[in-house]
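Demo today. Your pick:
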Amino acid sequence: MWKLGDSFRKVIKASRSKKQNPDELGNEFIIPKTDVVKFAEFLQSRKKIVKLHCYIHEAMGGTNATVWDVGRTAITEDSPTMFGQVRVLDNAITAGPEKESEKLGRAQGMISSTGMEECAVTMNLSLWFTSGEYSGSALCLVGRNPIEGKDREVAVLGGTGAFRMARGYAVCNSYSYDVASNYGVVEYTIFVVAYSQDDDSQ
């Protein structure tokens, strides 16, 4: 169970008092007192488990491509795993695997080919939801992704909005890939523990 440290307790106690003594807080506490109290109370709110299921569309070719190269090493072209390739992306997130499925948001970030002997990328993605229950919130996914494997796991290391301080993991699988158009769809099942904000007055 999460507990407040002594310094944090002192900040909250002084912040809630009618007269705040600067000597009691110290110079290191520069956050407005109302924000300190709100954050501390947020950390003590109950937790909830959230499961998300969605699809991310990777358009890697054509005029409407959403994945673009931004860097390569001297050996990338000769590497069987494209080692050293760095790409940025802004992919669509949908409820189903079809292009016409309900749009849920965008997957934005960077992926780098970091496996010299195996096709694996290191990814840093923000899943930004623009519709539905979690509209305006985001999840941060990071980790190693061996793209030819099954049930590949990456970590969820935070988020914003409904997913503030979220922790968990995502399981991804390649759903489809069209060679002619260089278009792929990846299925994501995400499990996160997040703080309930039902009583948050933000």
